Structure formats: structure tokens, C-alpha cells
Amino acid sequence: MSEQPTYEIKLTRKGGMGANTNWHWEVQDATGKPVKTGSAVGEEHKAFATARIAKEKLEAGK
Questions:
Q1: Using one digit for the tens of pLDDT, what is the confidence trace for 10-32?
Q2: N or C end of the chain: smaller count of CB under 10 Å?
Q3: First to last CA, the chain
């Protein structure tokens, strides 16, 4: 049985306020190397949800 890689989400605020906040997100592997990156505009929880979906797809091997 193979081990699944462990991924971590990092969010960085790039500017704006409130509903216009710009977020940059990265899904990183165990060594801290970015595997997938993206951006989102809006509230922090929405940006995190976008990154979480990308992380789940990586973990599923899609």
C-alpha cells in the first residue's frame, strides 16, 4: 500500500478589502514546494474553499 502525499494550503492576502480582497493560494507538498497555485477574490473562507478543492483533487490523483 502506498502512502498518500501530504499537502498543505497557504493563503496570502495580496490587496483590497472586504469583498474585493485579492488572495493568492498555494497547495504545497511536504517539502514546502508549491504543487498548485491560484488566486481568488472575496472573503478569506471562499479563497480557502477554492484551495481546498484543488488540494482534494490532488489527493485523489486527478
A1: 999 999 998 899 999 999 999 99
A2: N
A3: 19
